[in-house]
């Protein structure tokens, strides 16, 4: 993280404005194995959050809470930075914990993959998981072997009704073996 101070002077030479701009450097790609525990909010600077109700990069879409992430409204998207999947990886899986609200019939969660490098929602065309999580934490495992040798982004989407929320935690992408 770099901080840049900027002072703007008016035509008379006196300071008329002052601003501090903080620049976050995101890694070009995340490497497998990869893990995110959501314990440190500053680690999420390179993740994109989007809400149907609040717009692009909305912090109301997915918010950190008690060391996990919560989607507070439906149509909330949380998108990973680019993840480089090794071409030699076999048995590649995304493992995580997911839980819903206390209203399971209306709680829907899906994970979508894009190989385009574009973070626009229309490019997330591969649904790799769709389910109705219970209120208690569930461990899920999603196969990603078909993306070996590619760069991907993964979107976690609360695709339920308006008020039910989704919780995710302890996300990990790892492979079972390397030839």
List keywords for this structure.
179 residues, mainly beta, 8-stranded mixed sheet, 6-stranded antiparallel sheet
Mean pLDDT: 77
Instruction: Please bin the fraction of helical residues.
Output: under 10%
- Output the helix-strand order: EEEEEEEEEEEEEEEE
Structural class designation:
mainly beta
Largest sheet data: 8 strands, mixed
Structural commentary:
It is a single chain. The protein is mainly beta and 179 residues long. The chain has no helices and 16 strands. It has strands at 2-9, 15-23, 30-31, 34-36, 48-51, 55-56, 62-65, 68-71, 76-79, 83-84, 93-99, 109-114, 126-131, 138-143, 151-158, 166-174. The strands form 3 sheets. Strands 3, 5, 6, 9, 10, 12, 13 and 15 form an 8-stranded mixed beta sheet that branches. Strands 4, 7, 8, 11, 14 and 16 form a 6-stranded antiparallel beta sheet that branches. A hairpin with a 3-residue loop joins strand 5 (48-51) and strand 6 (55-56). The radius of gyration is 19 Å and the shape is globular. It starts with a strand and ends in a 5-residue tail after the last strand.
């Amino acid at each position: 993280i770099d901080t840049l101070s900027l002072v703007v002077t008016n035509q008379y030479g006196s300071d008329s404005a002052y601003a501090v701009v903080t620049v976050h450097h995101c890694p070009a790609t995340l490497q497998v194995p990869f893990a995110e525990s959501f314990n440190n909010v500053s680690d999420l600077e390179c993740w994109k959050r989007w809400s149907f109700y609040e717009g692009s990069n909305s912090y109301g879409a997915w918010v950190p809470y008690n060391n996990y992430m919560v989607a507070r409204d439906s149509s909330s998207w949380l998108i990973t930075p680019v993840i480089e999947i090794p071409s030699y990886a076999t048995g590649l899986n995304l493992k995580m914990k997911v839980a819903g609200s206390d209203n399971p019939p209306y709680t829907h969660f899906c994970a979508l993959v894009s190989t385009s490098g574009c973070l626009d929602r229309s490019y997330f065309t591969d649904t790799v998981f769709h389910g109705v999580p219970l209120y208690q934490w569930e461990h899920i495992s999603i196969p990603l072997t078909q993306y070996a040798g590619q760069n991907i982004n993964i979107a976690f989407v609360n695709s339920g009704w308006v008020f039910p929320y989704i919780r995710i935690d302890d996300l990990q992408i790892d492979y079972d073996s390397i030839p």
